[in-house]
Amino acid sequence: MTAHRLTGYRVDPDLSPGHGIDRDAGITVTVDGASVPAFTGDSIASALIASGRLGCGPSIHMSRPRGILAAGVEEPNALLRIEARTPGAPSESMLPATTVDAVDGLSAHWLQGMGVLDPAGDDAYYDRKYVHTDVLVVGAGPAGIAAAREASKTGARTVLLDEQSAPGGSLLSGRDETIDDTEAVAWACAALDRLTAQPDFTYMRRTTAIGSYDANYVVAVERSAADVAAPASAGVARARIWHIRAKRVVLATGAHERPLVFADNDRPGIMLAGAVRTYLNRYAAAAGQRIVLATTNDSVYALLEDLHTAGIAVPVVVDSRPEPSDRARAALEATGARGVFGAAVVGTSANGQADASDTGGTADRGRVTAVSFASVDGSGRPAGAVETVPADTLAVSGGHSPVLHLHTQRQGRTRWDEAFAGFVPEAPVSGQSVVGSANGAVSLGTALEQGAHAGHAAAAETGARGPLVVPTASASAPGPVHPLWLIASPGAPAGPHGPTAPRAPADSEAPTTAQPLAGNGTPALAPEHWASHFVDLQRDQTVADVLRAVGAGMRSVEHIKRYTSISTANDQGKTSSVNAMGVIASLLEDADPASVGTSTNRPPYTPVAFAALAGRRRGDLYEPARVTNIQPWHVAHGAEFEDVGQWKRPRYFPRAGEDMDAAVLRECAAVRTSVGFQDASTLGKIEIRGADAPEFLNRIYTNGFKKLAVGKGRYGLMCGADGMLFDDGVTMRLAEDRFLMTTTTGGAAGVLDWLEEWHQTEWPDMDVLFTSVTEQWNTIAVAGPRSRDVIATIAPDIDVANESFGFMEFRETQLSNGIPARICRISFSGELAFEVNVPTFYGLAAWELVDDTGQEFGITPYGTETMHVLRAEKGLVIIGQDTDGTVTPQDAGMGWAVSKLKDFVGKRSFQRTDTARPDRKHFVGVLPVDGVTRLDEGAQLIAAGTPVTPEAGPVPMIGHVTSSYLSAELGRPFGLALVENGFNRMGEIVRSPVGGTLVDVEITSSVFIDPEGKRRDG
Amino acid sequence: MLLIDCPHCGPRDEVEFHYGGQAHVPYPVDPYALSDRAWAEFLFYRDNPRGPFAERWVHAVGCRKWFNAIRDTVTYEFLAVYPMGSPPPNTSTASPPAHDSAHDSGSDPS
Amino acid sequence: MADQLPEHPAFLWRNPDPKPSYDAVIVGGGGHGLATAYYLAKNHGMTNIAILERGWLAGGNMARNTTIIRSNYLWDESAAIYEHSIRLWEQLPEELDYDFLFSQRGVLNLAHTLQDVRESRRRVNANQLNGVDAEFLEPDQVKEACPIINVSDDIRYPVMGATYQPRAGIAKHDHVAWAFARAIDAMGVDIIQNCEVTGFVKDGNRVVGVETNRGRIGAGKVGLAAAGHSSVLADQAGFRLPIQSRPLQALVSELFEPVHPTVVMSNHVHVYVSQAHKGELVLGAGVDAYNGYGQRGGFHIIEDQMAAAVELFPIFSRAHLLRTWGGVVDTTFDASPIISPTPIDELYVNCGWGTGGFKGTPGAGYTFAHTIATGAPHPLNEPFLLDRFETGHLIDEHGAAGVAH
Asked: Which one of 3.30.9.10, 2.60.40.10, 3.40.1190.10, 3.40.50.2000 gives the CATH number of domain C104-168+244-331?
């Protein structure tokens, strides 16, 4: 059991309860290539300590040797990279060894404060779950279990979360505590067993509440019981993100211990006293064989007793309080240990080299070999002789900081409790309570009482009542706490404290000399005396760094933290933040840390993997891909798709050997010479019904709709109140009081919202209703000179002759195969064209009917690219491509659609000076003069003769190309553009910089073919 | 995640709603009687208080109805919810939104 | 072993009491306020000035932004002022003698749809002609510029290309603030912290001073540079601003060995991310949808951000969310700033920078100082006066600024 040199070891079962480990389940882990025996239930840290290896990766900047400091999430030093267990899975970095379960075969490496990202993506499942609960209790320590018990017994739905793998919280670190005359850990397990059997109670272990949000919305991360690095079983999530909405929240989140700030307080072997106790009792791991205890409060005396019981030597207890407390006296008597009061540790000795950059060597490099202490005066300055005793471990307790992250995330305020020497809640957040050590309760009995009352009250406030039973345990009054924020090195000049000592000038003083502190005739505060007094271990920041910040003129703790980076590391200041404030307060001669500031905490409480938060929103589930019911046909016919909003739309249908240009030229030619068909089902469709529907449309569209005849459609433009185009589409009048509006594919939801906003918020007295029917109708465009033949065949009951079925009219009929349909003569291509609308139940069947019927005419499916080309040849605008939110109807050449007779949304804005300018950018056509160059969409245009010398200053641009295509019809490339004063520049030759050359471009009408519109009627 | 008390559907998560900015800014009766400056006020100028704010919301993923609310822009706490078209209540006397049902048994800490 | 960060100077600023009056007072001690004071002193010889900061210096958005610096905006007016700003950035480390880790590592703005590509090309072409360095990259070139981006087809919105501005980059925001602060303190400018303006003192329609929680301070000129709190001040002064204050969140991971060589922004797969010198990934999230001064937002915004980040950067899967926070951004209808005189004589306002103020810090300071000192806008901020909301000549940068950032 005992090694040659003083170091840690596994404690026999008769000397430690070992609550957390299963001694029958021996396993092996590997750390930095060395085998480490462990038991199931160990953390990597506890297994290492039990093997006598508490050294970890060196410090981030100074490469100082470091060791495990703590036993939980607050660990600042012992950061690991865990290797993946299976090929293809990623390794994971920056995990504190104190939080990683030991699992057989796990392999890990120490890090030096920085992680390594594994390029292998993470394919593990991560779920997200939602729950509403009456009462949420965070923390399954004694206070939390009491709260959960009293809440759940009333029948209130209760959820209990705890970050540990077993219940009990701080009880797991103890050994002789009893609750209701039962051994405490057994009490906790039994309580959970009973609770779990109750309906509507949920206990989630390995679950950390990471964020607290408005109205008691708490986000928590549940880690699977499977090992960290191996994949969980197929279909089982590696972690779950819980979104919990609670009526009432009880925070029983415990407290973290603070280190002490003295010279070289970062050495391996210096550990938090509570952690030493946790390792001893929960993991049966002795941190060392000669352990000095240094404290400011009563908490170490339970550790003293447990060490004594385990047969571990304690040479001395160094206690800052001037007189022994009752607790201290009793423990020292019972154990026979030596206690020194009114004293503090002022330094240590260590073995070996200071430089730990060689990580392959002994795990105990730089470890403490002796502890030095001395009496301290009222301000914590060493006075009197320094005594040194051999020791391999120094267990420190600077005090306790309630874990109040969830409280302060909700802007819960804290106050400094002088007696407790910690920040405690000033008042709970509305709908919440804080209990136990998180609330500054020191004794077990008080924690249980607070928890029970809180759980009972929380349930009552949700309307569920039951009898209150308070578990009982020892409730001794807490002893005094005598914090020491800064312990000077012996031999340093007089410390910074005391009325005669130099100090930082107060803000109200006029500056006398420029430098207030560091090194300016104030030797006590010279940084070299404080260069190894660590405040933030993980950031390698010392009191010297704080001095430098204060010397620079900084007074706000926020500034100092930023200047020094204190509290910004992986541990987010869990063991350093309050010490930093204490140090600053001491330097600024303020009474207590609260005068420096209060801590603000931000989610997450502990780090969460990106992939866990991404959850199932990966790959296909990242966002829905909307497809029409004709999609299978498109896929089967080789369509290439483009994203239009959330929809997948066929862009073109290439045949064997065709690239996009070839396919599109063929499709365009087919439409203009025979017939093509397109799935236009994605366009938005909104049914608008009510007596005031006509008037409503008149107010929304720029052109008139009140007098549109039943049975006809009209193309309408929509502007925002600022007069800028934002959507367009054809609206058909189905009846006096019933219209079917179409919108762009991407704009549908926005238009529906727009309509409802105007109705509900401005014109609520109008009798009009809106229903989205986008997914209730399929729309099949059939376009081209032969389209009439196709329609005549599929819709034999209607007279399709031009005289009978006019442009923009529609007919309702039954197709030859029985499908009910509404067929409209709408054309986006300028050719004779129809749109066949059928209920979506029949969509694919209707599509196939059109396809079959059209075969004899060589009917060709076409996609969005062809549609774009065809409409561009006719100068039709695509909102959102040819417009960008700055284009009015007049700019787009559609002044004809702007009613002079009625007001509509946006009309007033046309009168503004800039909106009424005659030389705004206008929508025109552009033709590369050489007949060969296809301009990029997005190409810029400059006036002829403009020198292209951007290095000498901005080159004035006159517009840009919005659409650009090859044209089968024209036999040359062409485009559309927005050009300054374009309407008045017809025929002008302008230039487009392309690569290093200038391409000549003619400004033309935007209508390239059939300007008289003769093709429209076929 | 704000909990918003839709007057029709009850308390729902904020992701079910769209925000409509300041309430009680009606479309001008006669836009053509306004100067460009006054028209700009309607288009672009809105109050932006640090504190209670009367604003519009719509339950976009639920009933799709618009309503008004008074919410504190610092604490994000809803002080009142009232129908679209109604004048703002006096928040010092108005009862809090119904979703505070968890608070209705009385013993709330102050 | 990680590189130590550059040492900060031993002295930054005095903590003086306010004088009874100054030639000019800047309300707001963030990046823009500090830069304004700097250029007032440097370019216009005005050193009898004070910055009044209601909290701790540069503790607002300057303490919490995602540090991206670029000038690749679409419109000529925007390109001009942001490019001027970048050119000032390039001189500042030497001029202020402070290494604030300005790293010109480029910025990629990704395109994920055909329309994204059109808009990207339009912006690249305009940038080039406006003298802003820009190129359009195909997906394989994007991969070369940033090897950790997933440019494959297996994500919902594959990368179809990107714009690239080589001279864009990042800088350490706190250090920028301290660099300016040290410089102006040395020039005799008073930095007054914990001094909140509670009202304005007027003589007729002219501002002659401010009321503060530390007493009345006279001022020949007053410049407002209070970002998200601009409306509060405007209300006190008696004029209106067309801005809305919204929460904007950001987040960091823990420290990692460098893997991300540049800055990547995507509107469509909403994420923008860089890796700071120290090693943390810095990501911005979207704006929360409602007005808010709480400097915080909803967790669902963060989750959306994480999903986007992991899609585009599988290597980030096991990075950990370490800290989230929020600020208050003052947004305008056109996502462009307001640098302008106000209806009140000798009262000037710089606001409306929304989610993108950090990159404009020197440019804002330079032009705002000019406006304050001369009473008239500089040509660069002429397009950004309040009157554009009246004429309709808005400068709509939602595309370029679309990603909150």
From this structure: 3.30.9.10
